[in-house]
Amino acid sequence: MEEYLPQYTQLLGLGLLWVTVHCSGMCGPIVGSLVATQSGAHGPGEADASWFTQLRQRAGNVLAYQGGRALTYALIGAAAGLAGAAAEAFIGPLTKVAGLLVAVALVGAGLLRIEPVAKRLKLPSGSSTSSATGKFLGNVMRRVRRLAPRRGPMQMMLIGAVMGLLPCMLMFWVLGLSASTASPLHGALIMVGLVALTTPVLLFAGTAPLVCKPAVRQLGEKIIPYAIILSGLWLGLISAAANGWIDHLHVPFELFGEKLVIMFW
Q: Residues in domain Urease accessory protein UreH-like transmembrane (predicted)?
């Protein structure tokens, strides 16, 4: 187990910081939208269910979604661990380029959600991007309903499994960690660890309408665009360092007698 400690440490170090900013802005709104479509859809009278019942349903749907993602990620991680260095050699150059592209896309997406900036640049408003996201989710939902007609956890699990196949720079980075283990078991566990790290953020996103006051939700909506931009800039620094254009920023530390390093970029 000790030989895999650096991979798990990197996941818990940089991954935790990255997840907090990146997933709250990118996946949070998506999961919130998906959970909202499931609310009050289990039968007559569900809309009048108690606060606790609604909270339990929303949390259950988020966990089901995460379970589907975990299954997909585990399979991908096991394959990466099995392929080992060969997969890492393929993934490395890919992430160097993809990271820069995704960074630009994140900054652009954040700007689109800041209405004054979008108007000044004569770009589509945030509502246009929300509409596009809604159409995409609608297409996914229609296909999933053919397999699971009844709304609820089973639908959310299938959607999560499908969404796990979407490209994500954070997923690519963790997949590189999985490949570096050269172990199917630890490759799968590393990827499932990513799902575990994202769960608290997505649970909050899915239950926020019930646990937060309207003023807090409005504040969160105002912060998200800037969080997305920050995530994009951070990812840009990571990619620039990976390409050797700037120096890496890292913090050395010791854990269980082992000298380790957390790479910020």
A: 14-234
